[in-house]
C-alpha cells in the first residue's frame, strides 16, 4: 500500500472524526461495513410484492380463534411503531456521530430498509382492512408495548441533548449504550418474540402473506444486528477505555431490564397460549436470545436457558453471519429497462 493510501486509511475512525467533510469511501478500512451494505442491497424487497389474498380471505373467515387474532394485532401494533423509532434513532442520533464513510453508507441503506418495514405494516393494515387507529396507537394504549418504546426513546433523547458529544468519555459511553440499546436490544431482543409468534402462524400455513413479510424483515434485521455488533466491537477496539468494568455492569443491567420487558410483552400477547406456543416458554426463549447477543459483544452469558422452539431455529440460524434465505425475493429492473415517464 502506498504511504499516501496508508495515511488515508489510518486517518479513518469510527468515532470522533470529521462529521461534515465529504465521505471518503476509498480506501476502504472497515470492509465489514461495506459487506453488510452489499448484503442489504442483495436482499432488497418491497412489501407490495407479497400477495395478501390468502390472508385477507382467512382474516375475514371464522377460522382464526380470538387468541390468534389478538396475537397478530398486538404484534402489528408493536412493530408498526417500533420500526419508526429505529429509523428516528438512526437518522437523528447515530448517523451524525459515526464518522466513517463505509459505516455511513450502511446506515443510509439501513434507514431505507426501516422505511420499507414501516411500509410493510401500513400495507398489511390496509390489505386486511384493520382498524388503523387501534394498531397505530398501541404504543400508548398497551403498557407492555409502551414500556419497550419508552426504554428505547430515553436512549435516543440522551443523544439529542444539544450538549451531547462523543468527545467526552461519558458521551462516548452514552453513545455505545445507544448502539447496544438499539442494535442488540431493540433489533436483537425486542423483535424476537414477535418473530417467533408470527412465524408460528406461517409454519401452520396461516397468514402466510404476513409471515413472508416477517421473514424478509427478519432477514434484514439479522443484517442490522450483525452490522451493529461489528460497529460496537469496532468502537471498543479503537477506544478500549470505554469498555470499563463499571460500564460492562451497566450494560448487563440494561440488557437484564430489557429481557424482563420482553418477557412481559410476550406474556401480554399470549395470555392463554395457542397451538405450538405456550406463554411460559417465552421466558426461556428471550433469555436464550439474550445470551447469544451477550456473547457477541464480549459479555458473559447470564441465563443459560435452552431454546424452547426447536422448529424456529431451523428458520433462524442465529450464528449465521450472512443471509439465510437462498432465494431472491424478486427480479429487479435493470437500468436499461427503467422508464422515466
Ligand atoms: Fe426494521
Ligand atoms: Fe432494523
UniProtKB/TrEMBL annotation:
GO terms for biological process: deoxyribonucleotide biosynthetic process. SUPFAM superfamilies: Ferritin-like. Its EC number is 1.17.4.1. Provides the precursors necessary for DNA synthesis. Catalyzes the biosynthesis of deoxyribonucleotides from the corresponding ribonucleotides. Belongs to the ribonucleoside diphosphate reductase small chain family. Binds 2 iron ions per subunit. This is Ribonucleoside-diphosphate reductase subunit beta. It catalyses: a 2'-deoxyribonucleoside 5'-diphosphate + [thioredoxin]-disulfide + H2O = a ribonucleoside 5'-diphosphate + [thioredoxin]-dithiol. PANTHER family: RIBONUCLEOSIDE-DIPHOSPHATE REDUCTASE SMALL CHAIN, RIBONUCLEOSIDE-DIPHOSPHATE REDUCTASE SUBUNIT M2.
